[in-house]
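Q: I have two molecules that I believe assemble together. Could you output structure tokens for the complex as a whole instead of separate predictions?
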Amino acid sequence: MLKDLRTILFRFIILLVFQVVVLNHLHIGGYFNPYVYVWFILFLPYRIHPSLLLLLSFLTGIVVDLFSGTLGMHAFACVVTGYVRYLMLKSATATEHDRGRFPSMRKAGFKWFFHYTASLVIVHHLCLFMAESADFGDLPSALLRAMCSAVLTVAFILACEILFSESA
Amino acid sequence: MQSFFRFLLKYQTFILFILLIAGSVFLIVKHNSFQRTHFANAFYTVQGSVYAPVRKTAAYLSLNRENIRLSEENASLHTRLLQAGDTFGRVRSIYDTLYRQQYLCIPAQVVQNTTSKQYNYLTLNRGELDGITADMAVIGPDGIVGIVTASSPHFATVLSVLNRDFSVSAKFLTSQFFGSLVWDGRSPYYATLNDIPLHAPVHIGDTLVCSGFSSMFPEGTPVGTVEDFDKDDGNFYNIRVRLASSFRQLYHVTVIKDLYKDEQNALETGHNLHN
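A: Yes, here they are, computed for all two components at once.
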């Protein structure tokens, strides 16, 4: 239990520092702004209490907001992502038990993990970029930027998962 | 009452979800309407002090390029100084009774900068203690950068040209036709110039400078060049402008204080009142 807590805290700090110091300053062609920190929400244990999941999602979003100068937008996207994750896993875990404590590609298989990651990342990015464009005046551009960035974020998470499971 | 608590317990996740969503939407709306000024002192001091060391370290990596740009700027200023001396037979004295100094320049460095959002802001490492207050103009080595929105004792936030709330009055260097320059939120390299009538002569590559009408940027500060243009439905051109400043590489900037601004504003508002 203590080990889990340490792993979660470690990931929280690493992902947020990486997001705030490196990725927030990375701009590829104006359309790709990966938000890899959302991996933290995907990675939380299966059996986490739903309320705790939502509160942690909100906290993650607020911290990123504080360092991006966009108070509320990341928090909004993260809470929606957290809730969708809760709905997804609520219907799934009843039949599939032995995937380990944390969602990972090694335990759950590529196909399941890819679907899980891609759908949640897309939800997160759509919410974020639509909250950012706010007036809905430039919706097609916001959707395009969300999808381009989501592709990059998913690719990054999958690449890291593959590297991690090789070494484990 | 008991059934009410059972209801709360049963739907606690959904209720918490709704509460958190409401909280974040509240933050978004409140943050936008307050225009960041109410948060400036506490929030941006924290943000600035975290980003300052990161940016300071990163600055070493581009030191060479920055030096070249600064020496180029230095050379062009020297050239202008020599020309001025030529015209008047001597270098203009700033404290002359005929030529009073209108603008005061305060050097600053960028500690935080975004270009990929719809509403981009910069943070500078100079603030009230250096005389920076809201509504001052910020220019870079190549052209306009933005307008100061708020300042704390050691930091200032700047509304970037790359912000959909930004607009500035710009004119053609040669023909004096002027229009308003706004950013469409797409590329950090281009902006749009509106309100230029169809009878104005427009060519690709024409230079645009500040008109001085917005009384923040000094007249003649470079804005950009005409990249492309077409006619929209009405009587105006739709002009795509390549911005002079490269916002992704911004580090050394200058904050400009207009010493006559209060006088001009007082006169103009007084004039409007009498109309």
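A: One point stands out. The mean pLDDT of chain B is 80.
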